[in-house]
Amino acid sequence: MDAGKRTINDIFNGNRILEIPFFQRAYVWGEPQWERLIEDLETVSASNKPYFLGSVILKQQQTTTGGNVGDKRTLIDGQQRLTTLNIFFKVLCLKTGLNNSFDRVFRLMNNNIALWHNHNDIADFNRIMNLATEEELSRESSIIEAYNYFRKEINVDKLNMNNILTNIMFVGIDLGIDEDEQQIFDTINSLGVRLTTAELLKNYFFHRHDVESYTENWKNVFERDTDTKKFWDRNITAGRSIRENVDLFFYSFLQIKIQDSALNVKTEDKKLFTKVDGLFDSYKKFIQDYKIDKATLIQEIKEYAEIYRNNIDFDVIDRELSAEYGIERINAIIFGLENTTLIPYVLFILKRVANSNERNLIWEYLESYLMRRMVCHETTKNYNQLFSERLISNNIITRDVLKVHIENQSDKINFMPTDSNLEFGFKNSKLVNKQAAGILYLIESMVRDRSKQSTSLLGLDRYSLEHVMPKKWENNWAQVGSEEEKSNRNKTLLTLGNLTIVTTSLNASMRDADWKTKKNGRGEKHGLRHFASGIETFSPFLEKADWDENVINERAEFLFIKAKEIWRNQKAAEEVNAIM
User: Fold this and answer.
1) d(Cα 288, Cα 65) in Å, to the nearest integer?
2) What's the CA gap between 444 and 438, in Å, rounded?
């Protein structure tokens, strides 16, 4: 890597092709950037002092010995700046009759255009570069808009081309063929530069001669229209990080591929490929080291992406949840309760299991398994291994085999909780609000008698969690006699028996009020009868005269009885150990 100051003449040297990755995103600069550029270049023209215009990162490409051009570089960072400068100087030279001066700087010695543009903008960019005289151009593209803006706004009396060419400076970084451009991107992320894994893979898979394949296998899948782009660009919370949906897909797809027994992926490589960081590098290593045919892989990506698009639904948390076991409820667990580690196995099942009844049996068991463990506050740290390596590599594609696999695990870390475990969890587990609300909501969605309710159940994300007996109970609730009783109460009020979902958080004065006031409200301030009367996992308890530890345990038992029927823990219907 070579880094340092660069002038325009250093970058455009007459013998160097600068190639914007052909399937890079389109030119996006607009009037605010164009206006500022003109103002800055007028200042440079008057002051004749250096002016830094940001960074330019170039990566060396291999060139053939018999080629007409000795140097070819990929423009990694600087597409917007260099494109705009080309258009700016073209207009300035057309206005001043110095088109030959433009060509000497921005064309190659063979008179070809030095900046090779991407597929979105190449036609409009080359059209402007090839103009012999200034003329009006009409077309809805940012490239043409930039040209027309400069035609209108450039004042040639305030601009000195030689001063600008001499004084514009860039922070230039030149990378060798084998150096990692993504690492450089991460280092300069403060400049707003960030490519998704999908962007990097697109330009890794497709080149300028692959337009037909790109259109069929990539554009129609990931970039077909605004709704499609919105779906794939959506930010998703995954554990402690936020990732774009398209990156979540590519991560999940890779986890499925590396479990293919025919590829015999090494254990140390599997471990490397499960890391979220460096996903593009993982793809490159996987493809190169395991001799993966790119065309075949692209077809698989297309198939899995279409399955993902048709089934993975993060908006499920904004609408009423179905009472039927199925992919909709699994989506609610994935996105409402932040369990994105399930996605590889879910995608695997959607691809491999054609029978919808068998799929729904798997979804039912998965929901029971995940929610029982959540109630019992069991660890999720091994889920990544379970839902990628173990279940996929062992080709677990039926409900009964899945049950046996879970029940027969030797490590017991990922065990299925028993009914006794579940009951203990409802009465003792102290969960974060998101988990507690999710547990109560998923039970509510199953037990709710929709024929008797005047309003529909809202989406999971629309409910708040309320402690019935408040944490500050000592202000307005009956006191207890001993420190031991006080400690017990403080523990009990954090458990699920004392929690309910409500449509709107209570007013602060209501939240800490005594049970009668909190239940019925005071004046214009509504209480739990208003906000939770339609919640069937809580409304029967609104008739209680008092709310104390005994009632909390009674409600915990009520919730447990409902939950053990919803999230059943039946033994496998058949003996399938031989299959394992």
Assistant:
1) 25
2) 10
209-212: long-range contacts, CB 8 A cutoff, minimum separation 24: 211/119
User: pLDDT of 198-227, one tens digit each?
Assistant: 888 988 898 878 889 999 999 999 989 889
What percent of the chain clears pLDDT 90, i.e. is strictly above it?
Answer: 68
Q: Which residue has the tokens 């088109």?
A: 99
Residues whose CB is less than 8 angstroms from the CB of residue 307 and which lie 6 or more positions away in sequence, other chains included: 347, 350, 351
Q: Which residues contact 398 (CB under 8 A, 6 or more apart)?
A: 353, 358, 361, 362, 576
Render pLDDT for 510-557 as a digit per residue (tens, 0 to 9). 888 999 999 999 888 889 998 888 899 999 999 999 999 999 999 999
Q: How far is residue 321's CA from residue 319's CA, in Å, rounded to a whole number?
A: 6
Number of neighbours of residue 419 by Cβ within 10 angstroms: 15
With tokens 């779906």, the residue in question is: 231
Q: What is the DSSP letter of 522?
A: B
| Entry pTM | 0.80
Tokens standing for residue 564: 């053990």
Phi, psi of 28 (to 5 degrees): -130, -5
Is the pLDDT reported for residue 580 higher than 60? no
Rounded to whole angstroms, how far apart are CA atoms 337 and 331?
A: 9
Classified as helix, coil or strand, 48 is coil
CA–CA distance, 576 with 580 (Å, rounded to integer) = 7
CA distances from 499 to 50, 186, 233, 437, 496 (A): 65, 43, 35, 8, 5
| CA–CA distance, 274 with 264 (Å, rounded to integer) | 16
Which has the closest alpha carbon to 329: 453, 443, 228, 185?
A: 443
Contact 364, 399 (CB under 8 A): yes
Residue that is written with structure tokens 């019935």 in the block = 468
Instruction: Look up tokens 């970084």; give the residue.
Output: 173
**For residue 569, how far is the Cα from the chain centroid?**
33
User: Strand 71-77 and strand 16-19: pairing?
Assistant: parallel
Burial (CB count <10 Å: 0-12, 13-18, 19+), residue 384? middle
Residue 297, classed as helix, strand or coil, is helix
pLDDT at site 208: 79
- What is the token pair recorded at 140? 């809805």
Residues 6+ apart with CB under 8 A from 151: 91, 95, 134, 136
396 Cβ contact list (under 8 Å, min separation 6) = 390, 402, 405
Q: How far is CA 20 from CA 77, 82, 216, in A?
A: 9, 10, 22
CA gyration radius for the chain? 31
Q: CB–CB of 6/50 below 8 Å? A: no
| Residue position matching structure tokens 């199925």 | 326
The pLDDT value recorded for residue 533 is: 83
77 forms bridges with which residues in the sheet? 57
Kindly report the backbone phi and psi dihedral angles of residue 464, in degrees, each rounded to the nearest multiple of 5, phi listed first: -105, 165
Put residue 384 in one of left, alpha, beta given phi > 0 → left and psi -120 to 50 → alpha: alpha
Is residue 69 very low, low, confident or very high in pLDDT (cuts 50, 70, 90)? low
Give 465's contacts (C-beta < 8 A, 6+ positions apart): 433, 436, 437, 440, 499, 500, 501, 502
